[in-house]
Design a protein that fits this description.
Radius of gyration: 21 Å
Strand order of the largest sheet: 3-2-1-4-5-6-7
Number of strands: 13
Shape: globular
CATH topology of the largest domain: Rossmann fold
Order of helices and strands: EHEHEHEHEHHEHEEHEHEHEHEEHHH
CATH class of the largest domain: Alpha Beta
Number of helices: 14
Distance between the termini: 18 Å
CATH superfamily of the largest domain: Glycogen Phosphorylase B
Largest sheet: 7 strands, parallel
């Protein structure tokens, strides 16, 4: 086997500072699997949460560069020359990073890095792989209209130089094709995310009756408001139920105020070990309005949990309605309440969905198999 320096991979992920979900755990999960195959992964991010999580999992990290200004739409498009200056600075930073660290592959997962990292990597003869965490469908919007979206045009140009671009779901591919107006280029491919198959020790919290759990950023688009409304009705009919909300976000206080009259709704905040709460709950809920491909759903399936989720994005590629979970329309507290009530009242159905969820995970979303059979060939292909 080659020495580690000849198999070093830079895993770059730069989210908004308050974000920490499946896309942020992705490089860490990938890094662990790559180590098993003789690679030396290095996680690069400006996000304190991503860096802390990667370090806590024993991975090498580098504090990267990232500009918090990410919205260049509307009148801000007139400031495109400033964005080009930023990209030049980032490009030079990538050049020195690559020269110092000597990776064989750069695996980029964020918009600004798609541009600067790709051009720097290709200039220095490195293999460049992208993973899109449901952002490209927005980035490419209107890029074919000559006077709109100059940054989207730049990202599209950079995409032609990437050796491989992986999309997390078929729904994302469909959305991107709609923006292109033609089939996706040959370097685009769909690789479903997965998670490691692991034993998780349930968190020890006092609980009685049925406990529902959601792991999510506390923002409107994650359906937290509808979930609180649905649970308040559930709890009024079933006083021994509890709802755990694992996560944090900019709208935390708004949701605390909404749930203030209901002590059975427990805000647990950000956790480096959210799966311990999922392992301890009875029913997993994911009411997001939109979703590229939810690792939270895959993790719940890995743990064999009956699941309620919204029928959006890549969710139907994970949850088959009435087989391993229930799908409802987004933004509907009534449908959410009905689905939660169905599972609450039917222990046999919960058991069936639990068994089927675990089986679907083992068949389609085992991360070690995905990395071995799909990602590593992208790194080694010449």
């Amino acid at each position: 086997m080659a020495n580690n320096n000849s198999r070093r991979v830079l895993l770059v992920r730069n989210p908004a500072f308050h974000d920490f979900g499946g896309g942020e755990r992705f490089p860490v999960n990938l890094g662990h699997e790559l180590e098993k195959h003789g690679y030396e992964p290095v996680v690069i991010s400006r996000s304190p949460k991503v860096l802390h999580y990667a370090k806590s999992q024993g991975l090498h990290t580098i504090r990267g560069w990232w500009w918090q200004q990410q919205d260049w739409s509307g009148k801000r498009a007139l400031l495109f020359p400033i964005y080009l200056c930023w990209q030049l600075i980032l490009f030079l930073w990538y050049l020195q990073l690559i020269l110092r660290r000597k990776p064989t592959t750069i695996h980029l997962q964020s918009k600004d890095d798609f541009i600067a990292g790709t051009f720097a990597g290709r200039l220095l003869g490195k293999r460049v792989v992208w993973t899109d965490h449901a952002d490209l469908k927005y980035i490419f919007a209107n890029h074919t209209i000559w006077y709109k979206n100059p940054i989207g045009k730049l990202v599209y140009l950079a995409s032609k130089f990437a050796h491989a671009i992986t999309l997390v779901s078929q729904s994302e591919e469909t959305a991107i094709i709609a923006n292109f107006g033609h089939p996706a280029p040959s370097n685009f491919t769909v690789i479903h995310n997965g998670v490691p198959d692991e034993q998780v020790s349930p968190i020890k919290l006092s609980k009685t009756g049925i406990t529902f759990c959601a792991t999510s950023r506390l923002v409107t688009a994650k359906g937290i408001g509808e979930l609180i409304t649905a649970f308040q009705k559930i709890h009024s009919e079933n006083p021994d139920t509890t709802l755990w909300l694992v996560g944090d976000g900019p709208e935390r206080e708004k949701f605390r105020a909404q749930a203030a009259s209901e002590p059975a709704i427990v805000f647990l905040g950000h956790s480096d070990e959210p799966l311990r709460y999922v392992a301890a709950c009875d029913i997993f809920v994911h009411p997001s309005y939109h979703e590229g491909f939810s690792l939270s759903l895959v993790e719940a399936a890995m743990l064999g949990k009956p699941i309620v989720a919204c029928n959006v994005g890549g969710n139907p590629e994970i949850i088959e309605n009435n087989k391993n979970g229930l799908l409802v329309h987004e933004k509907s507290a009534d449908e959410l309440h009905s689905a939660l009530q169905t599972l609450l009242n039917n222990a046999e159905l919960r058991k069936t969905y639990s068994k089927n969820a675990r089986e679907s995970f083992a068949k389609e979303f085992d991360w070690s198999k995905i990395v071995r059979e799909r990602f590593i060939p992208l790194y080694e292909k010449h």
